[in-house]
Description:
Layout: H1 9-16, E1 24-29, E2 37-43, E3 47-52, H2 61-73, E4 91-93, E5 96-102, H3 114-131, H4 144-150, H5 152-155, H6 160-177, E6 185-188, E7 197-200, E8 203-207, E9 214-217, H7 218-229, H8 239-252, H9 257-284, H10 296-309
Antiparallel strand pairs: 1-2, 2-3, 3-5, 4-5, 6-9, 7-8
Helix pairs in contact: 3-8, 6-9, 7-9, 9-10
Amino acid sequence: MAVFTPLSDAQVAEFLRRFDVGNLVSLEGVAGGTENTTFFVTTDRRELVLTLFEQGEHEELPFFVDLLDYLDEHRLPVPGPVHDREGIALHSLAGKPSLLFPRLPGRHPMAPNLMQCQALGDALGRMHAVSQHFPGHRPNPRDLNWLVAMHHRVLGYLSPEDQALMKDEVEIYQGVFGAASELPHGALHGDLFRDNTLFEGDRLGGIIDFYNGCTGDLLFDLAIVINDWASGPEGQLDRERHDAILCAYQARRPLTDDEREVWPTMLRMTALRYWLSRLLVVYVDPPAHDLTPHDPAQFHTILTARLKHGALPLPEASNT
Length: 320
Ligand SMILES: Nc1ncnc2c1ncn2[C@@H]1O[C@H](COP(=O)(O)OP(=O)(O)O)[C@@H](O)[C@H]1O
Ligand SMILES: N[C@@H](CCOP(=O)(O)O)C(=O)O
């Protein structure tokens, strides 16, 4: 259920003529997406992905193109947008903004092994090492300001205990992160869950779905990754996966003392970020399309596990 805008072979064949990618052989709608319409496109020369943007702020699309171009130029495993013969990447198709990408190899690792965790930590560390110099700017749309503004909208749907939990946590985050942040800053993926990566065996084929991409605290990105990639069924951290990601990451970008100090709070804040965004989807702003929403309880479990057990000790950069 992700082809919100159907396209004919003839429409796509015509569209492809602007690009130096060969002629259309086949077109396949992708069922797995949730926000945009995605097609796998096969030409007589290569495998491509065509994305039509169904929602979001279309004026922000040039930021995503610039970010993907930049990361691609720095040899990160991302799908660099295909530019047409005149150098333009962003087009309109069936009235929707559209981008063409190379199709990256692999599958989403739902139970990642330690080699996969290491590969992801390495790629994220490399990405953050270069993304600190990315010249673009897009404020993090899910940062502390957003949490402060939006958490009131779900309180009425929560038990008294969970209301207190959410309010107390947001207040703590304001104390820790409220002053002008000194943390290392750069471009973030913003939603680097397992299902936004593709692996061929242990090799990272690519990182996709940069549409939460933004600029902000690099640690925010890393905490999202640890919460998704290294949480067990009860929300507790899996030490081996945690250390595999963090050792590989720090071999590329060691964490600063300031980052180490706020790390336990950042893990909790990014857990609450998803608890809240999922609650908003369930109770306040359900999607127009008939999609099963992600379960908010999963991130409630992760948040309470972080509160109960704290964070694991961070590996030292020199251990790598
Ligand atoms: N460049 C790519 N290479 C290979 N597969 C891709 C690529 N881009 C997207 N996909 C596939 O299409 C699916 C949906 O794409 P995604 O950008 O995540 O859409 P949505 O934002 O709607 O969830 C992904 O889960 C992945 O399986
Ligand atoms: N990966 C997220 C969905 C994207 O977050 P959003 O804040 O842009 O809705 C999830 O698993 O909830």
